[in-house]
């Protein structure tokens, strides 16, 4: 006989028993026992809630005091903060200067300074090459065969 057969035999025997309905005193006793068990459970009271709240506030105050004491005992953390703030301010100033330079560059025409003397400067306006066919045929002077010849 297997274990399942034993359980099914027990289940068959139990199901063959007549059904009894619980009497009035049973229900009253069962509910009284349930209510008594509920009363024994720990339920936070108002005093307990205030105690937990006070403990949490105390921990926050202690953390704040410890943090302020640490920062006063370790001034290098304050200097690091001021250094990082000054670096951030310098970074922002450089960003603004770079954006101003980019705006100026967009407004001015590109030119090539060829040289000059006290009396004159040679400047070539590169914007004249834009949208022209000349820039496709242009070659540097060192590449042209005529530039390698020496004039007597």
Q: Helical element count?
A: 5
Structural class: mainly alpha
Mean pLDDT: 76
Distance between the termini: 127 Å
Oligomer description: single chain
Based on Cα principal axes, name the global outline. Answer: elongated
Radius of gyration: 47 Å
Helix fraction bin: 55-70%
- Largest sheet, if any? 2 strands, antiparallel
Q: Ranges with pLDDT <50 over ≥5 residues?
A: none
Strand content: 5-15%
Strand order of the largest sheet: 1-2
What is the count of β-strands? 2
The H/E string reads HHHHEEH
Model description:
It is a single chain. With 152 residues, the protein is mainly α. The chain is built from five helices and two strands. It has helices at residues 3-16, 24-40, 46-73, 75-107, 134-137, and strands spanning 111-116, 121-125. The protein is elongated. The N and C termini lie far apart (127 Å).
């Amino acid at each position: 006989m297997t274990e399942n057969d034993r359980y099914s035999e027990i289940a068959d025997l139990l199901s063959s028993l007549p059904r009894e309905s619980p009497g009035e005193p049973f229900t009253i006793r069962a509910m009284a026992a349930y209510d008594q068990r509920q009363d024994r459970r720990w339920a936070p009271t108002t005093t307990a809630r205030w105690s937990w709240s006070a403990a949490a506030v105390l921990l926050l105050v202690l953390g704040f005091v410890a943090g302020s004491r640490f920062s006063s005992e370790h001034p290098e953390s304050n200097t690091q903060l001021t250094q990082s703030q000054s670096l951030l301010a310098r970074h922002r100033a450089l960003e603004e200067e770079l954006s101003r330079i980019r705006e100026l560059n967009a407004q001015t025409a590109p030119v090539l300074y060829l040289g000059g003397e006290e009396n004159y400067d040679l400047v070539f306006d590169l914007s004249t090459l834009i949208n022209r066919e000349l820039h496709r045929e242009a070659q540097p002077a060192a590449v042209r065969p005529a530039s390698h010849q020496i004039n007597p």
